[in-house]
Amino acid sequence: MSVSASSGLVVASRRPSARVGILALKNKSTGRCKFIQFTLDYDLAEEIVKKIERVNRHVRDDTLPDKINDDAICDLCSFNEVCLPDVYHDGEIIFDEELEADINQLMELRSSIKPLQDEYDELNEKLKKKLHGVQKAIVGDCVIMGKMVTKKPFTYNGGEYWDMRIKKIKK
Ligand code: SF4
């Protein structure tokens, strides 16, 4: 596979044994080149190509994909207020000062625990990778349980992921 771009060139072999590619970048002003080696992931590339094809089909046919309507995903989406106005705008307006103060405090608490949540997520991901494939194990005074879960077909195009839970053993 060889892709040329105005400022770079990706060179990669299609041989199954070749898992490494080189990104060649040329500085147009100085003419100097920089080579960046990277590991190839054909499965990921295939997934991306399929996604691009889906997007192109929608652009060509002037259609929109089905709405996911999953809080876990839509809450993080930049288009949610446009895409789901009934969820993010419409509703009964309640005038209650105490309720409003409690909600504001909850929002403040949520934003103050965000860095901790990010740290938790990062460590959790690290452990998930380390314990991938482990169905049941005991580490220290915790029990680890893991299983493969099939994603809902409309979520990230289906697929599977490893679900891991850690529970403290009651003494
Ligand atoms: S565009 Fe965003 S808000 Fe709309 S369904 Fe997709 S993820 Fe949800």
Would you mind describing this structure in some detail?
The protein has 171 residues and is α+β, with helices and mostly antiparallel strands. Among the domains are: 95-130; 132-171. It contains 5 helices and 7 strands; from the N terminus they run ββββαααααβββ. Strands 1-2-3-4 form a 4-stranded antiparallel sheet, with no helix packed on it. A 3-stranded antiparallel sheet has the order 5-6-7, with no helix packed on it. β2 and β3 form a beta hairpin. The N and C termini lie far apart (58 Å). The model is unreliable at 1-6 (pLDDT under 50). Iron/sulfur cluster (SF4) binds at residues 67-69, 73-74, 77, 79-80, 83-84. Iron/sulfur cluster is lined by residues 67-69, 73-74, 77, 79-80, 83-84.
Write the layout of secondary structure elements.
Blueprint: E1 2-4, E2 8-12, E3 20-26, E4 33-39, H1 42-61, H2 71-74, H3 80-83, H4 85-88, H5 97-130, E5 136-139, E6 142-150, E7 160-168
Antiparallel strand pairs: 1-2, 2-3, 3-4, 5-6, 6-7
Helix content: 25-40%
Low-confidence stretches: 1-6
Give me the count of strands: 7
Form type: extended
Sheet of most strands: 4 strands, antiparallel
Q: What is the compact description of this entry?
A:
By secondary structure, the protein is an alpha+beta fold. The protein is built from 5 helices and 7 strands, in the order ββββαααααβββ.
What tags apply to this protein structure?
single chain, 171 residues, alpha+beta, four-stranded antiparallel β-sheet, three-stranded antiparallel β-sheet, 5 helices, 7 strands, 26% strand, disordered N terminus, binds iron/sulfur cluster
